[in-house]
Structures are given as structure tokens and as C-alpha cells.
């Protein structure tokens, strides 16, 4: 069975562009044999955080929260597709991640940032590095930085032009790094139960 990888994306905008990068990553990770699945925060539609998942009595969390908790617990690794709003994380994705804590523990996460401009969302990506680490994930050092996104991926998520070629070149290392840590974490979880 391939690695179960959840690809998170969190723009709620009508004219959003980052979905192109999320689609590209699901496609390419699947082509490498992973069971990759997109988690689109807008489609999940969680309200602004009231209670975290763990704050509900067992079996009483809203269905969307319960279903997502199960997916996160069952995943081997995570990819976060992070756009940048005013040098910071997009609120939709941050809101989704804040609903969980222990569910994220003991798995690796990789960050793919993007923006409309040439800086490719790296300031938000840097902020996500600390956020994901705080939430118990091992964050890989190989990142993707895609910008300008509209000149790198077309509407179907297919790489175009020079930016697309650069993305293709960077993807291999990004995926290899995540796969190595995924395997390491899987083996360690088998060898020894997590300490907390
Ligand atoms: C509220 C807002 C703030 C933005 N701030 C930044 C920014 O700080 N840096 C940047 O490179 N692009 C910024 N942009 C442009 C985004 O990179 C661009 O709109 C991108 O397509 C957003 O991702 P999305 O289309 O998936 O929502 C901003 C866009 C919005 C809507």
C-alpha cells in the first residue's frame, strides 16, 4: 500500500489560484504510488474555531470534524499548500488546522508555498514551518516555492513555461525528502509506541 498523504489547501476565494498547485501535488504524489488526497478547507467548511475536536465528548463532534479527524489520524504524511495574505498564513487553512492537535502528532509534513508574485509565498511558508512543528509534525526542509503561480501552472494544474519546468525539477527532491521521513516515522511507530 502506498503512503497515505493528505494535501491541505485553504483559500476560500472565488477566484483562487492555489488550487492549481494542490491539484498538481495530488497528481504527482499519486503518480509516485502514494495514496494522495486533497483536503480543501473551503469544501470541508468548518466554522471559525469554537471547540477543538478533542473538546467534544466522544462521538459528539460534528460529522465534518469527526471525518477529518479520522483522515488525519490515518495519514502517514501531510503536505500543506500555503498561500500568503499580507505576509502571513491564509486564515481558512489556519482555522482548519487549529481544530486538531494530537491528531497531527508523529508524522512528517512538507510545505509548498505560492503567490501571485515572484516571492512565491515564502514568508507564509516560513510561518507555517513553526506552526506545524508546534503541532507535533516533523517539517521537512525541502520546500516548494511557486511564483508567480499563474505563470507556473495552468488551470488544470499542468506546469507551464520556465516556472513550470523549475517546479518539475524541484518536485523530485521535495517528494523524496517527505517519503524518507514518512518511512522513518512509520518504522519508528511500529518499533515503539509514541511516548505521549
Ligand atoms: C488579502 C490578500 C493579501 C495578499 N497578500 C499577499 C502577500 O503578502 N504576498 C504576496 O506575495 N501575495 C499576496 N497576495 C496575492 C496572493 O498571492 C494571490 O492573490 C494568490 O492568488 C492568493 O492565493 P489564492 O488565489 O489561492 O487565494 C494577497 C492576496 C490577498 C487576497
Word description of this protein:
By secondary structure, this protein is an alpha/beta fold. The protein has one domain (4-191): Flavodoxin domain (Rossmann fold). The chain is 41% helix and 15% strand. The chain is built from six helices and six strands; from the N terminus they run βαβααβαβαββα. The chain has helices at residues 19-31, 41-44, 63-74, 91-98, 122-134, 161-191; strands at 4-9, 35-40, 77-82, 108-114, 138-139, 144-146. Strands 1, 2, 3, 4, 5 and 6 form a six-stranded parallel beta sheet that branches. α5 links the parallel β4 and β5. The chain is globular and about 50 Å long. It starts with a strand and ends in a 5-residue tail after the last helix. Residues 11, 13, 16-18, 83-87, 115-117, 119, 121 line the site of flavin mononucleotide (FMN).
CATH superfamily: Flavodoxin domain
How much helix, percentage-wise, in residues? 40-55%
Radius of gyration: 16 Å
User: What molecules are bound to this protein?
Assistant: flavin mononucleotide
Order of helices and strands: EHEHHEHEHEEH
**How far from one another are the termini?**
27 Å
- The CATH architecture can be named as 3-Layer(aba) Sandwich
Amino acid at each position: 500500500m502506498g503512503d497515505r498523504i493528505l494535501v491541505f489547501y485553504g483559500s476560500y476565494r472565488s477566484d483562487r489560484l492555489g488550487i492549481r498547485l494542490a491539484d498538481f501535488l495530488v497528481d504527482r504524489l499519486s503518480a509516485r504510488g502514494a495514496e494522495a488526497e486533497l483536503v480543501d478547507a473551503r469544501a470541508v467548511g468548518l466554522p471559525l474555531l469554537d471547540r477543538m475536536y478533542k473538546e467534544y465528548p466522544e462521538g459528539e463532534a460534528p460529522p465534518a470534524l469527526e471525518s477529518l479527524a479520522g483522515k488525519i489520524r490515518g495519514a502517514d504524511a501531510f503536505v500543506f499548500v500555503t498561500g500568503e495574505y499580507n505576509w502571513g498564513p491564509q486564515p481558512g487553512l489556519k482555522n482548519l488546522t487549529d481544530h486538531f492537535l494530537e491528531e497531527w502528532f508523529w508524522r512528517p509534513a512538507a510545505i509548498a508555498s505560492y503567490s501571485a508574485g515572484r516571492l512565491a509565498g515564502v514568508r507564509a511558508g516560513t510561518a507555517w514551518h513553526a506552526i506545524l512543528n508546534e503541532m507535533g509534525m516533523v517539517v521537512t526542509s525541502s520546500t516548494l516555492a511557486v511564483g508567480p503561480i499563474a505563470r507556473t501552472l495552468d488551470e488544470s494544474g499542468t506546469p507551464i513555461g520556465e516556472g513550470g519546468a523549475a517546479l518539475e525539477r524541484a518536485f523530485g527532491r521535495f517528494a523524496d525528502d517527505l517519503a524518507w521521513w514518512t518511512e522513518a516515522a512509520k518504522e519508528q511507530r511500529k518499533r515503539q509506541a509514541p511516548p505521549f
